[in-house]
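User: I've been trying to design a sequence by hand for this structure and keep getting stuck. Would you show me what you'd pick, starting by listing the structure so we're on the same page?

Assistant: Good idea, let's start from the same input. This is the structure you sent:
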């Protein structure tokens, strides 16, 4: 699956894209160690060609594996762009460059998803932060990131 559309087909009619895009293809750089992306992006949207741009309209959905910024509890959050409208310019500096008749919409989807990322993931809005017990568990700061990740993975499994 890729988010490519044929511009020539779009001259005739709207195109609907739906399916799943592997995370690797979405190529998200979250730059946030509290958020990891797993599974695929689920999408369903229509593509309509106007004179100077393409309008994308539909929904996007992505599961995020988060760690609470206050207590480090792992939790899963589904990022939903339910009434998403994307804009893909065909002219100007930021225009999409076609390869033959095809344009790749991935970059525009990626940018819009990153804008919706939680800035400060919390397991629950009223999370009090680390309790004394949880603090003890995490205070062994000699643990490597790998060890920490495996703990996180285990916790994650327990939760499921
Ligand atoms: Zn928390």
């Amino acid at each position: 699956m890729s988010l490519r559309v044929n511009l020539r087909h779009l001259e005739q009619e709207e195109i609907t894209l739906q399916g799943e895009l592997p995370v690797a293809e979405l190529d998200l750089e979250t730059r946030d160690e509290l958020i990891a992306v797993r599974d695929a992006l689920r999408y369903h949207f229509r593509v309509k060609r106007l004179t100077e741009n393409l309008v994308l309209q539909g929904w996007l959905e992505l599961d995020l594996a988060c760690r609470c910024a206050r207590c480090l509890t792992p939790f899963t959050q589904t990022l939903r762009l339910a009434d998403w409208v994307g804009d893909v310019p065909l002219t100007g500096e930021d225009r999409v460059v076609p390869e033959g008749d095809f344009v790749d919409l991935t970059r525009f989807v990626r940018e819009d998803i990153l804008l919706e990322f939680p800035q400060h993931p919390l397991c629950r809005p009223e999370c009090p932060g680390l309790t004394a017990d949880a603090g003890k568990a995490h205070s062994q700061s000699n643990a490597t990131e790998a060890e920490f990740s495996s703990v996180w993975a285990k916790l994650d499994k327990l939760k499921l």
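That's my pick for every position. To get oriented when you compare it with your attempt: Confidence is low (pLDDT under 50) at residues 135-142. Residues 102 and 134 are 52 Å apart (CA to CA).
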